[in-house]
Amino acid sequence: MELKHLVSYASVVRLGSFSRAAEELYIAQPTISLHVRQLEEELQTKLLIRTTKNIELTEKGREVYECAMSILQLRDRILEKCSDGETRIIRLGASTIPSAYILPEVLPAYAKRHPSTYFTIDQGDSRSVAEKLTEGVIDIGLIGMKPSSSELSAEPFYEDTVVIITPVREPFLSMKENGTATLQKLFEAPVILREEGSGSLKAADAFLANAGYSEGDLQVAARTNDPEAIKNLVAQGLGISMISSKAAENYSRENRLLVFSFPEVSGSRTLYIATRKHAVLGERARDFLRYIRQFYAIPKGL
Fold this sequence. Notes:
By secondary structure, the protein is of the alpha/beta class. Among the domains are: 1-82, Winged helix-like DNA-binding domain superfamily/Winged helix DNA-binding domain (Arc Repressor Mutant, subunit A, Orthogonal Bundle), CATH 1.10.10.10; 161-268, Periplasmic binding protein-like II (D-Maltodextrin-Binding Protein, domain 2, 3-Layer(aba) Sandwich), CATH 3.40.190. It has twelve helices and eleven strands. Strands 3, 4, 5, 6, 7, 8, 9, 10 and 11 form a nine-stranded mixed β-sheet that branches. It has a two-stranded antiparallel sheet with strand order 1-2. Strand 7 (191-193), helix 9 and strand 8 (220-223) form a beta-alpha-beta unit. The radius of gyration is 20 Å and the shape is globular. The protein starts with a helix and ends in a 7-residue tail after the last helix. The model has no long low-confidence stretch (mean pLDDT 86).
């Protein structure tokens, strides 16, 4: 078993896409597919099921992913211990919205200034990222809700809002054009919600509560923690959803979704930088924290 096979496989699973894994690893997509196929052949088991819309893990595939992540984390620690000072590793954890829409903004810009930096990124929901931070698996977490653990500290670094997204079709087109959209009208449609453990779900629940609604008032069509899956399901007409305005930006620009905002309803959500209270971070990790604060104009320094 070759390490590169595990790297490719773990990236595909974490990002939910062969093409996105290829972009992250700077490897051609056919090579990523070859690595996964060779891993499956060596293990003599099916790890992934590819459909026209997404990638599904088999039961064995999930177990192999967990083992692969443990192996890659051990590799990173070995590299860090044996580093000659030229390569600096930063172990990040990020929940769904930060990993998909914040890190792609921050990391390339930071890497240009510090090309010797090597990032490892562990993606999960806010709760799982906080758990891995507590366990010492990662050094810095970017999450969508304030952690409950007394062992962690968190500071806000990005203020987002909750918006409602709908398909680009009637009756939503007329509502958008005429400015007649109301929550009552929109919530007549089926709704796609996030799952437990998600900061986005907490923000959506607050939005509903402030608008005088509860989940029981909605016709729930599906649940998923993947914002890309939510946007695709909405675009295809399964229902509407409440998501981060940051997550909705690209589909709105491409006219693949309609976005409705309700400023009178408190739908803001905060993204947090989380660290262990008594951890001693390395110089590069501290520098990265300073950079994020400056990038999003946080008036606080280390």
